Amino acid sequence: MIKQGAMDNPRPEAIFGLHTIPSIEVGQIAYISGPAMASSDHIYITIHGRSSHGAQPQQGIDAIVVAAECVTAIQNIRSRRIDPQEPLVISIGTINGGSRNNIIADEVKMEGTMRTLNEEVRQQAQKMMRDTLTSITSAYGATFDLKFDENAAVTYNEPRIVDETLPTLRRVVGSENVVLIKPFMPAEDFSYFQKVSPGFYYFLGVGNKARGITAGWHTANFDVDEESLVIGVKVMSNVLLDYLDHHSGSGQ
């Protein structure tokens, strides 16, 4: 959409987004100022070894053994090589290799995800991952391919816009129902729109513990208290109208 000009002619002065959050009760709005949601990189790793008979492993290069070493070492990037106060998640979600019980695998493919709230940490972790894979595969005589596909940048809520919007949120749902939460590691492609225009991405409480509506995003049991739909429309409408009213004489 951005490449096709959706943010041009005219370019928005500010943008707002709203997303459900099941851990917050219906009637509440949650917000974060500054970095709010993580960047997301899809990781692709292929380990190349050499096949041999399982009874003669010395004649091959066991890609499964090499991959196992790599998975363990990659986790040390988070635990031992990055400032522990910097949020970072590196997870290997799939690992596939081998064709038969008595054949040394010549190839293993792995996929994972990396999340961070800091672009510098993201670049450091990518380099460390490449260096780690280089060292381990070299020690075994194997090789590797590594690719990162960026799925989302850091969702960054412009503090100035957050501060300006909070009075509206509090007026609509009540001060006690506007909840400051910590940044978290799921990702959101709204972040790319925020790279073009400053924005505020906040969260609509849809949970209802009394009715058993508590399941998280992307689960088979996910549900919302539909009273939240009315609240969401009311909140967003007031946010936009108040912003336009405050800025109508700014000449921007």
Per DSSP E runs of 2 or more residues, the count of β-strands stands at 12
CATH topology of the largest domain: Aminopeptidase
State the major sheet.
Answer: 4 strands, mixed
Structural domains: how many: 2
Uncertain parts? none
What is the end-to-end distance?
A: 24 Å
Radius of gyration: 24 Å
What does this structure look like?
The protein is of the alpha+beta class and 252 residues long. It has two domains: 15-38 and 154-247, Zn peptidases (Aminopeptidase), CATH 3.40.630.10; 39-152, 2-Layer Sandwich (Alpha-Beta Plaits), CATH 3.30.70.360. It has helices spanning 63-81, 119-140, 159-173, 190-196, 227-247, and strands at 15-25, 29-31, 34-37, 39-48, 52-53, 88-97, 103-104, 107-116, 143-152, 155-157, 178-180, 199-207. The strands form four sheets. It has a four-stranded mixed beta sheet with strand order 1-12-2-11. Strands 6-8-4-9 form a four-stranded antiparallel beta sheet. It is elongated. The relative contact order is 0.25.
